[in-house]
Every structure is written in structure tokens, then in C-alpha cells.
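Changelog note: in this version the structure field was regenerated for every chain. One regenerated record is shown below for reference.
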Amino acid sequence: MLTAMVGIEIERIKPGNPQQNGRHERMHLTLKQEATKPAARNFLQQQGKFDHFIDCYNNERPHQALDMCCPAERYVPSTRPYTGLPDLDYPFHDKTITVTTCGRICFNRQKINLSVVFAGQSVGIKQVSEEIWLVSFMDYDLGYFDHHTCRLEPIANPFGPKLLRPLLGPEPAPMLAKPLASAPQ
């Protein structure tokens, strides 16, 4: 959720096509081979193996994609200071409600279960009909609830991949196949 809050959008590859994400898959293979085979005896020792891997991966191991340099040699700190996350604001909603530590929103003396993932975060509540309310988090509509059931009916995966709308304007001319040259008879 933090990634969404800092403006990072989720991109997904086509299922069953790890080659579309080759560099990431390769890093995971290297991590698995060097830090988990064999596994350490306990969590503390395993964390030590991960820490050693990160240090070696960033400071000692050259990377082909970086012209055989180590990532630490190419790293440049950001010039922008981190100022924290802005407060969430829902100007087009009727109310802004903070989700409780147990993952609920309290609305008109009713408790509506949302998710502990949103604990401490603000969500927007917007009335869409006489007894139906929409719950939104940032730019994502999460679902609807009514006064009677007080149960959130989720919208199909609001964090799933989004289809891009086609650009407005004239449609491109259809591609035509070149006619095949006929064979001499």
C-alpha cells in the first residue's frame, strides 16, 4: 500500500511469462542460490545471510547491465529531500474517515469491516444513492456498503492492472497485407 501512497503504480506481466521480467527473475534466482541454499538454522542467522548477500550484491559483485560496475559505484543520492507523505484528502466525497487499528470504519454508529491493511489511513465515503455509500482509498474505489447490511461489497480488485483508454482522435487506417505474387504457370 505504501507504494500506492508514494505514487508508484503496479505493473503486471502476462501470467506465465517470466521472460517479460527477466532482470527481476534473475536477481531472485541469484538471491535464492546464494542466500537460501542451504537455509540457516534460525531467523537471525538467515537474516545475516541476507544482509551479507545485499552487501556483496551492491558493493562487490559487478553487474553486466552496469558495464561491470557495482551498484554502489553508480548510486547517486536523490537531491530531493523526503518530506513524508501528505495527508489524504477527499474533496469530492461526503466524509473522510480514519480506519481503526482493527480495520474498520465507524459510520453513523455502525461498524463496517474494511481491512487491517488500511489501519490508520483515511478513506473517503461518498453517498451514491439513498442508502448506498462508496468507500475510496486515494484514487481507488474499494467497494460499496449500505445501512442495512453494513458490509463492504468490494469492487473487483481495485489495485489490479488498468486498461489504458485509447487516445482520442482519428482511428489509424487498417493495415493491409500485400498481395502475394502469383506463381508463374
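Spot check on this record: The first strand starts at residue 95 and ends at 98. Residues 163-167, 171-183 have pLDDT under 50 and may be disordered.
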